[in-house]
Amino acid sequence: MKYLQFPVFLLFLLLTAFTPRSALSAVDRDQEVRDAVTAFVTTRTAAMGWDVHLRRISISDSLKLPDGVIDYEVVAPQKWEGWGSITITVLARQKERVLRNIPVRIDVEALADTVVTVRQIEHGTVITADDLALQKRELTQNSHLGIRSIDEVAGKKARATLRANQPVRADQIERVPLIKSGQMVTIVAENGVIKISVSGKAHSSGAAGDIIRVQNLTSLKEIPAKVIDGSTVQVAF
Question: pTM (2 decimals)?
Answer without folding.
Answer: 0.64
